[in-house]
Design goal:
The protein is an all-beta fold and 340 residues long. Helix content is 0%, strand content 56%. Strands 1-28-27-26 form a 4-stranded antiparallel beta sheet, with no helix packed on it. Strands 2-3-4-5 form a 4-stranded antiparallel beta sheet, with no helix packed on it. The chain has a 4-stranded antiparallel beta sheet with strand order 6-7-8-9, with no helix packed on it. The relative contact order is 0.13.
């Protein structure tokens, strides 16, 4: 059994988003709440909390640009439940190399924004709707937008719509598929793979891989057979983890199912040097655990618990063996060291 060491970096009620950032070679672990509240940065080895902002909060996404300057992007003003009409993307940077003070500037008004991500030299944002009259009103679909990533902090983003008509977006991930990077986006209307413009193809392209409600996704060759699997949480905040294999005809067909409760985290890749799925639930045992194939070529899995009763909303993996977790149910930011 792996040896698991947990360190609580700090308390943050309803912490929702985490990311790993760097100023030069110094890492900063960042965490933000979905409430009207703060964002903090924690720097090893002492992890003393540094306040990035105090308000407004409402953070659904928090991502590092990973250019070594400490710049990051976040969605703010997306407060529970679906009070996202004032949502915007903000540009974050440290005021100096110490990372003891930070600056934040709104760069894109994006009502009902849910996810933001860096895809190559593009900033991608996804909304769960374009308008809402009630909590469960999904009659006005959302969209996915793209804007060139600016080199100058605080410069307003100029966004264009690259995919329209997707309702209740939840998942977004960058994966490798068919030898090229793809941006995966999911919602009620399915799972879409988006390809950025290139010299060969100057337009944004997308294809729908699944035509039913998908919450979150990952792509990885989990069984080691040389072909990537598509791993999903279904439906929205779902009760099923599904692993798909692609047929010779190019169709994704379910090959494995695993029961979950309010699934909110799925990560796939090499962890401690082994093919691993990391799964997080926000109901039931509210647990975080690993699934690993019992043997190469098999989807028969072993399950190893990392923590229970934490309700992780999001995680960030720091190779080879660390997990930064937004433990929403406990209001804590935690760092796990897993030694297999």
């Amino acid at each position: 059994m792996p040896n698991i060491c947990k360190q609580v970096l700090g308390e943050l009620p309803m912490v929702y988003a985490v990311c790993v950032n760097r100023i030069g070679n110094q890492p900063f672990y960042m965490a933000a709440t979905e409430l009207h509240g703060p964002c903090y940065a924690y720097s090893p080895p002492h992890h003393k909390p540094i306040q990035v902002w105090d308000r407004p909060g409402g953070v659904m996404s928090l991502i590092a640009i990973n250019d070594g300057t400490g710049r990051a992007l976040a969605i703010q003003r997306a407060w529970p439940i679906y009070h996202f009409d004032q949502a915007c993307v903000v540009d974050i940077k440290p005021s100096d190399a110490s990372g003891q003070q930070w600056q934040v500037a709104p760069v894109l008004d994006l009502p009902f924004a849910h996810r933001v991500m860096i895809f190559g030299q593009w900033v991608i944002g996804a909304t769960l709707a374009n308008a809402k009259a009630a909590q469960e009103d999904w009659t006005v679909p959302g969209k996915v937008v793209a804007a060139p990533l600016t080199q100058q902090w605080g410069t307003p983003l100029e966004a264009q719509t690259i995919l329209d008509g997707i309702r209740r977006n939840h998942g977004m991930n960058i994966v490798e598929l068919d030898g090229k990077p793809r941006l995966m986006v999911s919602g009620i209307d399915g799972l879409f793979a988006i390809t950025a413009p290139s010299t060969d193809q100057p337009q944004w392209q997308h294809e729908r891989l699944l035509d039913h409600d998908v919450s979150d996704m990952a792509v990885f060759d989990i069984d080691g057979d040389g072909h990537p699997e598509l791993i999903t949480i279904e439906p929205f905040h779902g009760d099923r983890l599904v692993i798909y294999k692609r047929s010779n005809a190019g169709q994704w067909q379910p090959a494995y199912e695993h029961a979950i409760r309010f699934g909110h985290v799925v990560w796939a890749g090499l962890f401690t040097g082994q093919p691993t799925l990391l799964i997080g639930n926000r109901a039931g045992d509210k647990d975080l655990y690993m699934l690993r194939p019992k043997q190469p070529g098999s989807l028969d899995m072993t399950c190893t618990w990392i923590d229970r009763h934490t309700g992780p909303a999001n995680i960030a993996v720091i190779q080879p063996n660390l997990i930064l977790a937004a433990n929403h149910a406990l209001g804590e930011v935690a760092l796990y060291e897993v030694n297999a």
